[in-house]
Amino acid sequence: MASAAAVAPVPEGARVTICEVGPRDGFQIEAAFIPTDKKIEIVNALFAAGLRHMQVTSFVSPRAVPQLADAEAVLAGIDRPEGAVITALIPNLRGAERAAGAGVDAVHTVVSASQTHNLKNVNRTIDASLRDFEAVCEMLIRAGVKIEGGIATAFGCPFEGVVPPEQVAKIAKRYQELGATSVGLGDTTGMATPSTVCAAVQAIRAEAPGLGIGLHFHNTRGVGLACVMTGLAEGVTHYDASVGGLGGCPFAAGATGNICTEDLVYLLNESGYDTGVDLEKMIEAAKLTQGVIGRELPGQVIKSGPRLRRYDPGLTATAAG
Ligand code: COA
Ligand code: ZN
Question: Is 260 one of the annotated active-site residues of the chain?
């Protein structure tokens, strides 16, 4: 007989916040332009499923990411249900000004923990990005926009390999000094493992006590949800995920999709966490997204349905000998 449970019981009413990043991380890697009205329809379907935190676009150079050149139009067209926290990714002051002008609640700044990826992604060094963020954060604080400090390649870099947790913690500390209320650790090319998740979370807590931590996993090596379980065990309650498992950074070799929102909702709801998300409606939103994207998405639950989905025995072959 198995003895003690390997997973700690979930306290009554424990909440996990899921930030939907499909409209940003998911769409940015799609080559074919998704019409603005389709983007808006997907965002609204995701809100209708119960999601309340959403990274709806990026305010980046339209030459770097043409797919998200319609950021202002998307912001202007989407629903804003009560309690919605609308965020957007920004790389610089110009992006921050555009985002604040479009009425976001929070921005997700981006710097990479590895120098090579930062140079590829935003065409400047880590130090230059962090210096730029001084004016960015001052402006955002004045405008009343919350700052989530994004740290890409936080668990490894496709160009440099290992990224030491101390480097991630150092950037997190700098973000805290600049006024960020939380940091989001981006696993840009799915290099995180349960042990590296523990190491990074613990390093940040030691270096920057009081700073919120969100985790952003890609499922490139199939261990994204295992990393979420590790994060939960560490007490982290904020996770990014992407509808259908879309996603990937165009400026990181080998990037593939985020952990899939409906798969994450399934795991968390079935584990006793309150996510506020209705799985059936989430699957509908994923099917809508799949139709718009025009190819099968990597998510699992979109294919299999909820756990207690029932099949008609009359429609299944019987193995008669
Ligand atoms: N929004 C719109 N346009 C922007 C912009 C922004 N946030 N930031 C810069 N630009 C424009 C400038 O106005 C300038 O335009 P011009 O040539 O017509 O005058 C041009 O882009 C170049 O500006 P510069 O500051 O020299 O930028 P750069 O060429 O060094 O590129 C970034 C730097 C950060 C703008 C670019 O690398 C970028 O957008 N990266 C984002 C990558 C990304 O989204 N990755 C995926 C998410 S992790
Ligand atoms: Zn990502």
Answer: no
pLDDT at 321: 87
| Ligand 1: residue whose CA is nearest its atom 19 | 61
- For residue 11, the SS3 value is coil
- CATH classification at residue 173: 3.20.20.70
Distance in Å, CA 297 to ligand 1 centroid: 30
Below-70 pLDDT ranges, the chain? 1-6
**What's the 3-state SS for 112-128?**
ECCHHHHHHHHCCCHHH
Of 137, 227, 249, 260, which one is the catalytic site residue? 249
Flag whether 213 is in a domain. Answer: yes
The total of structural domains in the chain comes to: 1
Residue 52 placed within a domain? yes
Domain coverage including residue 300: 17-315
pTM (2 d.p.):
0.96
- pLDDT for the residue numbered 5: 55
Distance of CA 108 to the CA centre of its chain: 10
Q: Is 110 helix (H, G, I), strand (E, B) or coil?
A: strand
